[in-house]
């Protein structure tokens, strides 16, 4: 439930982000040059297992613990994109259990095997508390056992996850609310719907390759810890503090179960590298020619190691890039950040709203909107280069 950006924007009209500077108490804490192994390990624990007390939403308000216990068998869970951590499963367990029984889901939760879900299960196998973690949306598995079951891949966006369908299972939601959640589809989430009532869901972004990225949101409203706090408190339902006058949000809890955990969470996210492209997934010779095309047409916005001009304070109005502006209009900056181009091979669809199904669609879009005049061969070369990143 964090967020990323728009791709391949050749620079045109831009504006600085001064008016979008986050409040001082939500700005990025001063980070050490390098986090210690202990800090990264604690950050991994937070990322994978910390609910920040959000059971108050998922259990007390939405009552999803009741739904999961009674109605969600493993087959259904896998269909809505939930993942299972094979490393904690006893050998041969899948051959012995009924994957059509909700009781098996309860057993998996009791083993802490469902990625991104934390449950308290009593002696009678009733789920008394259920919460979610960062890993629900920003971790997947390698499918080494079967589809949806394997070893964790933290930082990879779970593009199979149908968050809206899961929320819509709640028995307390009105039909019109359920219809909105069900409209999102797999791999999308609207991090402002519960704030402004509007519906423009975003593609779930990766949480890897962040070490050189200043602002990890589509609209660059704040750095990584700012967005982690926003999501933890306003979206996950965590019991913490988050305040941003630009958005009219001021939430406080006592005790604050979020703020003290943000530095190690950030350290773990910074430690996650973008995965390299699989061997043989692109033509190296063509990609090298594509680098020349990229340097000439794209590198003025996708700058340096970070891959974004936003580190220098630049934003792009929607008209500058030809992408839909409905989401940006809901934010304080009203514009989009240039997306860092990290592991593009791994996470289609592209653009903030998923409107580009392939990298070929992305290149064709900018060739048209930015009048790049690339030939078909140059577009092919550029696509191969993007696949190599």
Describe the structure.
This protein is an alpha+beta fold. The chain contains 16 helices and 12 strands. The chain folds into 2 domains: 249 residues, no CATH class; 114 residues, Cytochrome Bc1 Complex, Chain D, domain 2 (Orthogonal Bundle). The strands form 6 sheets. A two-stranded antiparallel ribbon has the order 1-12.
Record the strand order, biggest sheet. Answer: 1-12
Tell how many strands the DSSP assignment holds: 12
**Total DSSP helices:** 16
Listing every helix as H and every strand as E from the N terminus to the C terminus, the arrangement reads: EHHHHEHHEEHEEEHHEHEHEEHHEHHH
> What kind of sheet is the major sheet?
2 strands, antiparallel
What secondary-structure arrangement, pairings included, does this model have?
Blueprint: E1 15-16, H1 37-49, H2 55-61, H3 64-71, H4 74-79, E2 84-85, H5 93-96, H6 102-110, E3 117-121, E4 127-132, H7 135-138, E5 139-141, E6 149-150, E7 152-154, H8 163-167, H9 175-183, E8 188-189, H10 193-196, E9 202-203, H11 224-235, E10 242-244, E11 249-251, H12 262-271, H13 284-297, E12 314-315, H14 318-321, H15 359-369, H16 376-388
Parallel strand pairs: 2-6
Antiparallel strand pairs: 1-12, 3-4, 5-7, 8-9, 10-11
Helix pairs in contact: 1-12, 3-6, 11-12, 13-16, 15-16
């Amino acid at each position: 439930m964090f967020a990323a950006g728009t791709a391949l924007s050749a620079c045109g009209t831009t504006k600085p982000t001064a008016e979008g500077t986050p409040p001082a108490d939500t700005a990025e804490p001063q980070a050490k040059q390098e986090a210690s192994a202990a800090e990264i390990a604690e950050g991994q624990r937070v990322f994978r297992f910390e609910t920040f007390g959000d059971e108050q939403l998922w259990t007390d308000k939405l009552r999803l613990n009741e739904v999961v216990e009674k109605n969600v068998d493993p087959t259904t869970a896998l269909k809505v994109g939930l993942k299972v951590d094979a490393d904690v499963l006893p050998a041969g367990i899948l051959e012995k259990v009924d994957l059509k029984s909700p009781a098996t889901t309860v057993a998996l939760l009791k083993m802490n095997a469902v990625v991104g879900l934390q449950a308290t299960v009593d002696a009678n196998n009733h789920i008394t508390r259920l919460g979610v973690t960062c890993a629900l949306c920003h971790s997947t598995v390698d499918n080494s056992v079967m589809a949806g079951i394997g070893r964790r891949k933290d930082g990879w966006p779970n593009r199979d996850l149908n968050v809206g369908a899961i929320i819509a299972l709640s028995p307390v939601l009105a039909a019109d609310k359920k219809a909105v959640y069900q409209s999102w589809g797999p791999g999308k989430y609207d991090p402002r719907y519960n704030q402004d009532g509007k519906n423009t869901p975003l593609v779930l972004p990766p949480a890897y390759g962040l070490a050189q990225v200043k602002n990890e949101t589509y609209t660059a409203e704040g750095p990584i810890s700012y967005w982690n706090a926003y999501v933890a408190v306003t979206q996950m339902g965590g019991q913490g503090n988050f305040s941003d006058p630009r958005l009219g949000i001021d939430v406080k809890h006592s005790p604050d179960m979020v703020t003290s955990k943000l530095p190690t969470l950030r350290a773990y996210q910074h430690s996650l590298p973008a995965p390299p492209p699989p061997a043989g997934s692109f033509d190296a010779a063509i990609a090298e020619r594509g680098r020349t095309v990229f340097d000439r047409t794209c590198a003025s916005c996708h700058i340096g190691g970070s891959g974004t001009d936003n580190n220098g304070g630049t934003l792009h109005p929607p008209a500058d890039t030809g992408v839909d502006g409905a989401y940006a209009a809901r934010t304080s900056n009203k514009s989009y950040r240039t997306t860092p181009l990290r592991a593009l091979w791994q996470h289609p669809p592209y653009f903030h709203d998923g409107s580009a199904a392939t990298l070929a669609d992305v290149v064709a879009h900018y060739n048209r909107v930015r009048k790049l005049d690339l030939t078909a061969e140059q577009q092919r070369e550029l696509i191969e280069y993007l696949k190599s990143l």
